[in-house]
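Ticket #284: bound-state structure for 2,6-diaminopimelic acid.
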Amino acid sequence: MNKFSFTKMHGLGNSYIYVNMFEETIPESLLSSLAVKVSNVNTGIGADGMILICPSEVAPVKMRIFNSDGSEGKNCGNGLRCVAKYAYEHGMVKDRSFFIETLSGLVKAEVTVENGAVTNVTIDMGKPRLKRSEIPMIGLDAERVVAEPFEVDGKQYEITAVSMGNPHVIFYVDDITTAPVTTLGPIVEKDERFPEGVNVEFVEVVNDHELHFRVWERGSGVTQACGTGACAAVVASVLNGKTARNKETVVHLAGGDLIITWTDEGNVRMTGPAETICTGVYYY
Ligand SMILES: N[C@H](CCC[C@H](N)C(=O)O)C(=O)O
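RESOLUTION: The complex was predicted; output attached.
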């Protein structure tokens, strides 16, 4: 019987099964199917996916993230905060500020420590990718996708698309409590205009530094929070003149709040909690 030790952690209720690949060995060919199995709340552990904390040649640690459908994502904001917490608390890094490698490049983490435990984490997520080709999205000629008409099943919408290393499309709504998350979300996730699929976000603007946010995630469906999605929502809101550049913006997600700033230098900074739920051994 094969097995590996895991730590279940969450960022605002967006939980993953974390595996320390400095200590565990799992065949590459099994990673996708294992992500599906461990995510199952009935026959597995229960989570939005699986995250591997791996050795890296360019940073103290590398994060790989697998959604609950087994697809591998290229970035994960809530995951990065939990990886930073894990790395610091397990002595994998000595400084409170350090780099983490992702499939979409290097990001910088800064942990807040109280009595030896990481209570909050800031991630410099780097620059958003705004070109249509970088999302990626196919369709009109305009280089960026900002307030673009978008038809779905004969209904007209307006979208803005942003990549944080992974693809996001933002719909603005008047009332977040009635956003079509579970009806429009799964349709747009697989829309052919997004060749790699897309994370689908719904945003209600409160004022120039406050948003309400819900998400249908590519590969995981409805989650309590999406860190990269919240970053994309802030960038989209600045591009649409709805929130202020270089100003801390509170994003209210179902699982709690993130503080996000798109700085004048161009980077997106995200601050929020990261929590450990439990540890255990998974048999497969
Ligand atoms: N579903 C995403 C990966 C997880 C992102 C999200 N959980 C976050 O916190 O950023 C994707 O396939 O791009």
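RESOLUTION NOTES: The mean pLDDT is 98.
TICKET STATUS: resolved
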